[in-house]
Design brief:
Structural class: mainly beta
Number of strands: 13
Radius of gyration: 20 Å
Distance between the termini: 31 Å
Largest sheet: 13 strands, antiparallel
């Protein structure tokens, strides 16, 4: 039977004009604490056909795809911080509120370099590092969810650049075990992304990730994982062309 999911989404601002996510590590000014967040209620309707008795199996329900609240600010000297939580229980199998981002950044060198430590989005993939408010679809694509993840991870990252400089870069050392998880091995993932904008409206770049994951059979060697991605986007008078290619290759010693 076909299972078709129709989604109706209404995004509403909660407390702040600005919506923060990875890549927006700038804090408030002075000792001012800013509150930010948004909600994304949605209606799902699943067309599942009928059972052998002719009874409809279609289902419809209202949910929250996202319901987020966070704080952002700065403290002396040159330290920014950001903390956000997901309050939608529909976003995880345990139906629990959970921490999304929690990091501090050293910003003394402005646009050129910023050092960030904590939990944040892994610097891999264009779509993964696009804020929810900037997505052109309700959810991220399956290839990004499958190959670019974990979307959020714990680690240390050096980043910098800006549109005005014509380039942006990020290089991180990450646990590789995903958000709110302790690293389950002694190795770290190396993740990086570099984007250039040689002229107005055009950007091109790439990402990479290399690391190891713990196999099911802990007596075996750690599995090797490799990811590479290429991205490009061009905007002109309201028209946007955007795409990316992600390739993954794993060397498994045990499933």
């Amino acid at each position: 039977m076909k299972n078709i999911k129709y989604i109706l989404v209404l995004a509403l601002g909660l407390m702040s004009v600005k919506t923060y996510s990875q890549g927006c590590m700038g804090g408030g000014s002075g000792d001012v604490v800013g509150v930010t967040g948004f909600i994304q209620p949605q209606f799902n309707y699943n067309i599942n056909g009928k059972d052998e008795n002719g009874k409809s199996l279609n289902k419809g329900n209202f949910t929250f795809n996202r319901a987020r609240l966070g704080v952002v600010g700065s403290i002396p000297y040159d330290i920014d911080y950001y903390l956000s939580a997901e309050f939608s229980g529909f976003s995880n199998s345990e139906n629990k509120v959970h921490l999304l981002d929690a990091y501090v950044s050293y910003t003394r060198f402005g646009k050129w370099a910023k050092l960030t430590m904590g939990q944040f989005k892994s610097p891999f993939s264009l779509e993964q590092n696009t804020a929810c408010s900037g997505l052109y679809t309700v959810n991220r694509s399956d290839v990004v969810n499958q190959l670019a993840g974990p979307q959020r991870d714990l680690g240390l990252m050096l980043s910098g650049g800006h549109d005005s400089l014509g380039f942006q870069y990020s290089l991180g050392i990450m646990n590789g075990s995903g958000m709110n998880n302790i690293d389950d091995n002694t190795n770290k993932n190396i993740v990086g992304r570099f984007v250039v904008g040689p002229f107005k409206g055009f950007k091109a770049g790439g990402s990479f990730k290399a690391g190891k994951i713990t196999p099911t059979d802990t007596e075996e060697k750690l599995n090797d994982i490799y990811r590479v991605a290429l991205e490009g986007q061009y905007s002109w008078k309201g028209l946007l062309l955007q795409g990316e290619f992600i390739y993954g290759q794993d060397k498994l010693y045990s499933a």
